[in-house]
Structures are given as structure tokens and as C-alpha cells.
Amino acid sequence: MSLTVSPDLLRAAESGPVTDEEFVACVRESLPYAWQTVARVAAELTSSDAEFADNEIPPPGEVERGQLLRALASDSIRSSLERHFDVKLAFQNCHRVAAFRPSAVDSDTYRRFVSVRGQLLNQSPELRNC
Questions:
Q1: Distance between CA atoms of 55 and 76, rounded to whole angstroms?
Q2: For each of the chain's 130 residues, which pLDDT tens digit applies?
Q3: Which residue range forms the structural domain that includes residue 120?
Q4: Is 36 exposed, middle or buried (CB count within 10 Å of its CB: 0-12, 13-18, 19+)?
Q5: What Pfam families does the record point to (predicted)?
Q6: How many structural domains are present in the chain?
Q7: Using an 8 Å Cβ cutoff, are 60 and 18 in contact?
Q8: The pTM is what?
Q9: Any domain includes 9
Q10: Cross-strand pairs, 99
Q11: Within a domain: residue 11?
Q12: Residue 91 in domain
């Protein structure tokens, strides 16, 4: 299961839309490693003039790896994180998540990061089972 949904939040969702704030709080509580990783790269981007910030540190274990994969594989989770942190997220292999400024989506740097070539160049034997 991707998220641990409280009974109150589930009732709210059953009766209508929930706010981004409610959903983001659920993500933060359910997927703490993913939340911390995205928050860190977003903060690094915000505090610099760099084109992007990324995480190249593998998760410490399978639980954390699973959290990151679930967060970034879900359109609703990923887009809520992007809105919350005002970034565009890009993801390679099991741990390399990058935060770009939304205005950088048309940049050469972003296109290189999300390209087939970029994906292939970011592979190594250690990552084959991630």
C-alpha cells in the first residue's frame, strides 16, 4: 500500500474532494523517506542558483527505496509534491531524484536529464536490482 490513510481522510475523500494540504500531510506521514528526499533536493534548489538539485545517495534500505519508488511512480503523489515544493521532479533508477525549477522544463539540462541517453548513462551494475 502506498499511503496510510487515516479514517478521517478516507471519509473526506469518500464524500468529496480533499485539499492538497490534506493529501500532502498524508504523503509526508506515510512516506517519510521520500518526503525528506524531495524536501531536501527542493530546498537545495531554492537556496542556490543551480539549474537543478539531485539526490545521488542510494536509500539505506528496501523500505526507503520502496517509499521513493511509490512516491514518484504515482501521478497524484508526484504532482502534489511538485505543487507543494514548486518544482518539477525528474527520476532515474531507484534513487536519483532531481528537482528543477518549473521554468527549466524546456531547458537543455532538463531534456538531457530525462532523455534515454541520460537514463542509460546513469546505470551501473550496482543499480541493476534497484
A1: 21
A2: 589 999 999 999 999 999 999 999 999 999 999 999 999 999 999 999 999 999 988 899 999 999 999 999 999 999 999 999 999 999 877 678 999 999 888 888 778 777 666 666 666 655 555 5
A3: 33-127
A4: middle
A5: KH_NucS_shadow
A6: 1
A7: no
A8: 0.85
A9: no
A10: 53, 89
A11: no
A12: yes
